[in-house]
Amino acid sequence: MGIFDFIKDIGKAVGIGNEAEEIQADIQAKLAGQVENLTVTFNNGTVILTGSVADQAAREKAVLLAGNVKGVEKVDDRLTIRAPEPVFYTIQKGDSLSKIAKEQYGDASKWKALFEANREVIEDPDLIYPGQRIRIPQDV
């Protein structure tokens, strides 16, 4: 994401010489389950964050937690976002969006989510064709 500037002389006080450990513990505690393989290094006012986060919001929170510490002037964000593998489906004869929604989500009424996620390839939700491929969003 990049390098972010902070005001060095304000923020949460941590022990001198223990900045990296305390920042890492704080991020892991406050973002439990959202951060994996987190490594924090601190050198001359700059924090470097590496590892992976669940989403963009967790990434931004980790940067803010690291930057709002007294003595931190810059945060070098090298975190990556874990994204689920995309799921695609090939339309079969007799399929409808509600039938696919029932199979994929357990709820036929979620057909609208399928339609919205595939508007570029499905112009009319009542007109899908065998062999047509669509994306099955996982965040429904």
Features of this protein?
Histidine-containing Protein, Chain: A; Membrane-bound Lytic Murein Transglycosylase D, Chain A; four-stranded mixed beta sheet; two-stranded antiparallel sheet; alpha+beta; 140 residues; 26% strand; 2 domains; rod-shaped; 4 helices
SSE map:
Blueprint: E1 2-5, H1 19-30, E2 35-43, E3 46-53, H2 56-67, E4 74-81, E5 87-90, H3 97-105, H4 111-117, E6 133-136
Parallel strand pairs: 3-4
Antiparallel strand pairs: 1-4, 2-3, 5-6
Account of the 3D structure:
The chain is α+β, with helices and mostly antiparallel strands. It folds into 2 domains: 2-81, Histidine-containing Protein, Chain: A (2-Layer Sandwich), CATH 3.30.1340; 87-136, LysM domain (Membrane-bound Lytic Murein Transglycosylase D, Chain A), CATH 3.10.350.10. Helices cover 29% and strands 26% of the residues. The protein contains 4 helices and 6 strands. It has helices spanning 19-30, 56-67, 97-105, 111-117, and strands spanning 2-5, 35-43, 46-53, 74-81, 87-90, 133-136. The chain has a 4-stranded mixed β-sheet, with helices on one face. A two-stranded antiparallel sheet has the order 5-6. A hairpin with a 2-residue loop joins strand 2 and strand 3 (46-53). Helix 1 packs antiparallel against helix 2 and helix 3 packs across helix 4. The radius of gyration is 22 Å and the shape is rod-shaped. The protein starts with a strand and ends with a strand. The model has no long low-confidence stretch (mean pLDDT 95).
